[in-house]
Structures are given as structure tokens and as C-alpha cells.
Specification:
Order of helices and strands: EEEH
Number of helices: 1
Strand order of the largest sheet: 1-2-3
Distance between the termini: 30 Å
Length: 74
């Protein structure tokens, strides 16, 4: 990944959009004034799969925290 570090808070209404171009795809997160766009070239599909897996893991942890079964680090 080329260098850029940022943080943003996801909200329940955060939009997601995938765009297809001739040699890459983009994954846009957000539909507001500031969006995060990840551009993935051919050959990086495993990185997107890993990102999806990590997002699913994070979502499950949030569910556990919300229902009181997850451990919150102190």
C-alpha cells in the first residue's frame, strides 16, 4: 500500500460503492464531503478478501461488545 494514514468514524448510514475501471476497481467508503477510496489493481484481489475478512471479524466483535459477551480492552 502506498502511504497514507487516516481515521474516520463509521456511521450506520455510511455508504459503500464499487466502481469498475479498465484495469482496476475502486471501493468508496462514504457518501459525504469526505470519502475514503481504495483502488485495487489486477493481482490484489487477495488483499480485498483479507480486508473483507478483517471487516467481518470487527463487526462480530462489535456485536459481542453490544450484547455484553465481548471483552473490551482496558
Amino acid at each position: 500500500m502506498r502511504a497514507l494514514t487516516t481515521s474516520a468514524h463509521l456511521e450506520p448510514d455510511t455508504g459503500l460503492r464499487v466502481n469498475v475501471f479498465s484495469s482496476f476497481v475502486s471501493l468508496r467508503i462514504g457518501t459525504g464531503l469526505i470519502d475514503i477510496v481504495l483502488m485495487a489493481n489486477v493481482g490484489t484481489s487477495e488483499v480485498l478478501r483479507s480486508l473483507a475478512k478483517a471487516a467481518e471479524e470487527a463487526a462480530c466483535l462489535l456485536d459481542d461488545i453490544a450484547d455484553g459477551t465481548g471483552e473490551v480492552p482496558r
